[in-house]
Amino acid sequence: MPAEVFNHATLSALFRYWDEKRAGRAMPARRDIDPIEMGPRLLPHLMLCELADGGSRIRFRLVGTLLVKRLGYDPTGKWLADLPRSDYLDFLARMVRLSYAEAAPIFADSTFRWGVKGRLDAHHLLLPLTTGSSDGGIVMVGTAYMSEEVFPPQIRALDTQAHHSIGKREILSLEATAPAWRDIKTAKIA
């Protein structure tokens, strides 16, 4: 597993939760995920992204409070196409679609840079869920932001004043029956 997942308490806890809920299957079902059970440690860092029309459309079904604050607006219930243009959200959408298409977890990160020293790192763990429907799927996204600034600008502002660059992107290959965090192989995404 990428060290960034283990090194962040929230992302590692989310991965362990997802792995426990999959119970030997390739992935858990949406009905296996209980927001109340996840509690205040994980929920503020989560998004549930619904894919419709074979993955061509994405709707943000749930967006945690810390993510809403970091974005600078609340996309809950909205379709990606209805939100302001954002390289960052386009990057996340590509990773959501890939996680869904591969039916596999993905770790991805990106960085915003502005001014002389301004920097905001974003680490994402994308975890697919089955829905029991052939029309679409759901990807649970856990996100951790890090910056040396106490109050870095919101993504809404960074979309226009910062450079966004994509970093590591890896598909995590799991054995269906093994505890995932012990035996993970990664494959870099081109």
What labels describe this entry?
7 strands, 29% helix, alpha+beta, single chain, 6 helices, 190 residues
Tell me what the structure shows.
There is one protein chain. By secondary structure, the protein is α+β, with helices and mostly antiparallel strands. It has one domain (3-25, 45-188): PAS domain (Beta-Lactamase). 29% of the residues lie in helices and 32% in strands. It contains 6 helices and 7 strands; from the N terminus they run H-H-H-E-E-H-H-E-E-E-H-E-E. The chain has helices spanning 3-6, 9-22, 35-42, 65-71, 87-102, 155-161, and strands spanning 46-52, 57-63, 106-114, 118-129, 137-146, 163-173, 185-188. A 7-stranded antiparallel sheet has the order 2-1-5-4-3-6-7, with helices on both faces. The longest helix has 16 residues, at 87-102. The two termini are 18 Å apart. The mean pLDDT is 87.
Overall pLDDT level: 87
| CATH topology category name | Beta-Lactamase
Helix content: 25-40%
Q: Which sequence of SSEs, written as H and E, runs from N to C?
A: HHHEEHHEEEHEE
Distance between the termini: 18 Å
Number of strands: 7
Gross morphology: globular
What's the tally of helices? 6
Low-confidence stretches: none
> Class by helix and strand content?
alpha+beta
Second rung of CATH, namely the architecture: 2-Layer Sandwich
Identify the CATH class: Alpha Beta
The CATH superfamily label reads PAS domain
How large is the share of residues in beta strands?
25-35%
- Strand arrangement, major sheet: 2-1-5-4-3-6-7
- Return Rg in Å: 16 Å
For the record, the count of structural domains works out to 1
